[in-house]
Protein 1
Amino acid sequence: MAGSIRIGHTFYAQKAVPTKDGKPLRVTNKDGKPLRIVQVSLGTDSRAEALRKLPAAVADIEAMFARARGEGGLAGEALALRDRDPRDWFDDALQRTDLPETFYHVAGGNAQPVTEALRRWHDDATDVRTGKTRQMDEQAVALLQAKLGELVTVEGVGRTEAADFLWWLKRQQSRDGKRRSSATLDRLRSSLSSLWDWLIEEGKRTDLENPWRGHGGRRRRKKTGGNDIPGARKRTPYTDDQLVALLSGRPRQPALADVLRIGLFSGMRLDEICSLRASDVTDGVMHVREGKTENAERDVPIHLAIAGVFRRRITGKACDDPLFPDIPEGGPDGTRGFNASKWFTRYRRSVGVEPEPGKLLDFHSLRHTFKTAMHDAGVHPRTIDWLCGHAPPGMTGVYDAGPNKAERRRAIRKLRYPKKVMEAV
């Protein structure tokens, strides 16, 4: 139990150090001495003031315990803020640049970190998840964090994110030279699927569906959309006003302005844009060499609205030079898209572009915006799918070579956004 105690003229918050696996958590003072009771000064001799400050101080102590349990980092910080008045910490949090959007959802009690879910599951299933099984569970969650961010939440993983993660695992398999067998990949997926099953069945999370089912084994993964999962946040296109806000602002990183415009007028994925080299831009097209699907390799015509971006970026570069050397590589797979994604999220928030409740807005939403605009312009769905690197629905995608060069150019020339959006470009 937590409470307050008066020592001399000052009140202190205090709480006993809990145990883990039958042993007290390793919590020490500044001299490295183990503590059995943690005390934090409330900085007042007034009982009324002490009672007002007590919840925040207890939350800080809980964060200390979370770090000792291995729930540190952003998850520990966010969980520790749940019992505090947002007025006490929200303004300070906004000044930080290392907090993802999920931090506020977790701190507000609206999302659950996957790491916390894993701990609760293991605490509950001590007779089932043991030894190597636990190690595989922990490895799967660590890899999920590496791909989706330290503070990945249960609510933030839908079928789209699950499919992207599994594709990423397979890609990593050949990139780092340490090939994981198909059996190992399936065990990692199975660990995450079992965690979600426990959350739904034993954790009483009836609002969830298991996004890891239907991807397993050595069968070819069928593309599925996270927007079809009940309760999942639905990714939506940007509105005209939101596009104007994004295009009119000035990102701290100038490269982001170029990437944003290319995404809006090409429908390309963020990694595809950031991976372009000077030699990939020839004869008025962008050549996408690889991507997340078999249909990713394609030539996308350059829209007149962004031709100046490419002229400026190609000038003075050798054929093998990256088009975006000013975006540093990062993340576990060393891609420029990793940092560009973080930049975009911070920039989107800075210009006040936020999703409606239950909706999702990110860089990928530009693809939805592009597809909507192309559809409104009367472009055939087959051509839109091909330009976006998707196979047409059904078996035709296996045999369809896609629209010819002239058809692709005509389709891109049809693309036009409302006047105020075009003026902001």
Note: Residues 39 and 79 are 20 Å apart (CA to CA).
Protein 2
Amino acid sequence: MKTTISMIAILLLAAVSVKAEDLYTVSDISVRQRWPWSKKVDIDFLVSLPPDGNPTVGVDITVMAKDGSTPLSISQSSLSGDLSLVGPGWRRIVWDPTVDYPDTTFTQFNVTLSVTRSKPTYMIVDLRKQLGDDGFITYRYEKGVWDAATNYNNCYYCFVMRRVPATTSDEWKAISGGKDYFVLGSPTTEYTRNSSREGPNNCRLTNDFWVSHIELGEGQLYNAGAGSVQSVRRAQRSYDAMRGTVAQGINWPSTGHAVAGGSILKILRDRTGLEFDLPTEAEWEYACRAGTTTPFADGVYKETYTDADYEASMNTLGRCKTSGGTVWNDPPYAYSPNAWGIFDMHGNHNEWCLDWMIDNVNAAQADPMVNPVGPPSSVGNTRAVRNGGATYPASGCRSAARSHVDPSNTSYGVRLVCPYTDPAQ
């Protein structure tokens, strides 16, 4: 039974149960409050790897709590510690009850730990091999950014794809304070924002997806059989060359992810067995922000911004008109990635998105927008591009900044995405 009083008693030691896959086992679970110096609760447990287990794959831990037999609502934002990509050994999750139940005492508090296989952080497609070969597609399980992603092989011989979590996932809710959406566009007070184009709108993305950790390069196209230039230089291609033209019957969103025969994406799909495509505007901005709500993905926040502040961010994030000049072709990894290890999301090279371009992306006033695909057509028959570029001022390279161009234009860059599929299936 719960009473609405200040939490002053030590939480009862928990009787616990465990559900686990054959990958790992969890045992020796104890629950203790740090009273009297803190109300936080330590949930300690032992993770063991069976003899035939795979040590490169971790597990995610889900906490389900009850007071006696009464279920409790434990938010992801109230939990910290060993929740994801957990390996063998003694582990600890910390629950802050003041987040969910600031004025409640529990007399029969108990927890169940549910264990599931972790999702990989990175997928690597090795273009030196052929589809079906051992090692053609491999996965990495990293808690943060994979440092070795920046070696030469990964920008010339490989596609390195970073998994981006759905906004409905526990992974995102832990970042967002429990929200199941992100804010697409800029706050109404953001310096230099375009109020007719930048919302803001709440946006829910219900599926994980893979996004390339760098812009598509000439060497990658060459090794995939879709180009002739042997270089790490960033590739410039038209939207039409990537996907096919309206005259060929290819017209996102009405024809979905279909691409024309002979298009670059068709070649990449046949070569890899993966449904590569361009990102929607919503996917692009979500991947760019990586959990930030500031003008740039560096997370730098100020009460008021100036042009100089924006230029300072671009000095570390990418090339723009005022940070290195208008020569756009810096090598990969020349600038800092965002929190998800994705490079060059600000400046350097504008990148195609799937969507037709219109100013108001939420004419129906949906709240939230769910997996938005953009309008069925554009007044000017132009497609959206994001990122700004080396010829843009820093303000044009913000996370929310939007531009557009005719899909036949050959001077724009490409960032690949593809649907997430579970490698264990």
Note: The CA atoms of residues 122 and 140 lie 5 Å apart.
Protein 3
Amino acid sequence: MRSHFSHEISFIGHRKQFLTLSCILVILSIVGLAVRGLVFGIEFTGGTEIDFYQTGDITIEQMRDALAATDEGTATVQTTTTQGEAGFLVRSDTTDPTTANAHAQAAAESLDLTSDNYTVTTIGPDWGADTTRSSLMAFGVAILLIIAYVSFRYEFKMSITAVVALIHDLVITLGVYAWFQIDISPNVIAALLTIMGYSLYDTVVEFNRMNENAKQLRDGVHHTYFEICNFSINEVIVRTINTTIVTLVPVICMLAIGGATLKDFAFAILVGEILGTYSSFAVASPLLAIWKTREPKWAKLEAKYGSAAKAVAAPADSRAEASLARALDVPPLVARVLVARGFTSVEDARAFLTPSLERDWADPLVIPGMAEAVDRVERAVRAGEDIAVFGDFDVDGMSSTCILALGLRELGGRARAYIPHRF
């Protein structure tokens, strides 16, 4: 798979900044959870929810006074808008349906509202406890299954970093709910479970490319696990972003024009989707690369080809380039090419730039096996066999390959040139 960019974006090169940002967001979320806490809906705590709608010019103070007159003075009251009509959402600790309905009726009558202007929902504490227990069990089982699957399909380190990114997404999402005091309802729990799927999908897509490239990539450029990881992210990042955008379109529509139930679900999905995309390349992949680089195999490659090795080699290369440019009176670019090809001494570089026919020419037939190779090609031409001529993907490789193939065709051979590209 090719990268969609002409130059690699250095995601892993900015891993410290990404991980620092994630740590700040997680800390802020934990502070929000500790200081402000989560607001659980009556589905978890038990209680009564009274939804008043089409209330006209009634103010929130009038609604509170009407509720206080019915012994519901501790109830929380929020203003709502449904299909352009003003209303109120009232939550109280009352768990008896008869009492809750009587209080709602009394409050409505004092405000000149009818039974058509409100609905009452009452949930007992036992049902709320069962819902909480089931939700926690669902999260626990999901995380265990994720660890088992990713460990079986790839490796244990990938499963742990995937779960860390997953917890990162969930904690920050809950932190948003804590800071803004948005109710946690069963719809939000369903959205959080959905977020786990989206977050894991983005992460596994990147891990799959990293796993394949770590085994198969031999391009002479990406040696260390950090380099392979960054290259893999560049290969799939556009696909990840496109998938996220397509998914967010209906979510934003639900958030904009959906009812209260849909908005609860859509808001959690919106936050989680954005975090899941971010954490796949900013949390999961960097953590995996850091962990994998500690393995002996990748540690040796990091020491040889990594940023620290390049930083040590760079000053020496710069001094060699400057020395060659002065001694040979060549442009800096030519000196850089000479050093890149291994000519660091002035004598070797001068010999390379001034070839000698007597010194550098050699009869090809003295090369071991060359005579047998020529005889084999000659027999192939006479017998009309197919001859494949392979060359490197560079100027001299393509030129010599085409010349040889054309020459064999002039002799009556069935020759074809093949140039394997590297992209």
Note: The chain is about 65% helix and 10% strand.
